[in-house]
Design brief:
about 160 residues; alpha/beta; Rossmann fold
Length: about 160
């Protein structure tokens, strides 16, 4: 018998900015879990383009009031954030073998480093968005290139304001 915790997952990331690839993972993971938390990481060792609250708000706008998905921010370990929201799963999108090679040791570590054992679901990116990364999007935005294949209109507007 499944408990409510087993039907809850955390999808953590920097989301700087949220891309069509991130949204693909969100919508697909949302079909697998009763409750999905999007965890925006506030990493004090990095200087993001968008502040944590800006990133949270951009994602909330993209969700369009979807009650099944909630956006939260955190600064501590992913497993600690997952425990706070009651998630038994961590969702990670992977675009390539390189992403998988990076994510696999993290998944093993996350499984055992928290107070409770937690599983990680590596969700392969859909082919049409498998090449998109936030780093690539920021570079294109800085160069004033076309962003519509990579991000939604709202995110593109936010990026244009940042690079104006």
């Amino acid at each position: 018998m499944k408990t409510k915790t087993q039907l809850c997952a955390l999808y953590p990331g920097s989301f700087d900015p949220v891309t069509r690839g991130h949204l693909d993972v969100i919508w697909r993971a949302g079909k697998l879990f009763e409750r999905l938390y999007i965890g925006v990481i506030a990493n004090p060792t990095k200087t993001p383009l968008f502040g944590v609250e800006e990133r949270v708000e951009l994602i909330r706008k993209e969700l369009g009031g979807n009650k099944q998905v909630e956006v939260v921010s955190f600064e501590d370990l992913t497993v600690q954030a997952a425990a706070r929201v009651g998630a038994a799963w961590i969702v990670r999108g992977v675009r390539s073998a390189a992403d998988t090679a990076y994510e696999l040791p993290m998944a093993h570590s996350n499984r055992f480093c928290g107070e409770k054992e937690i599983e990680t679901l590596l969700l392969p990116a859909s082919p049409q968005v498998s090449f998109i990364s936030s780093t690539l999007v920021r570079q294109i935005a800085a160069g004033k290139g076309s962003l519509s294949p990579f991000v939604t209109e709202a995110v593109e507007e936010a990026l244009r304001r940042k690079f104006a």
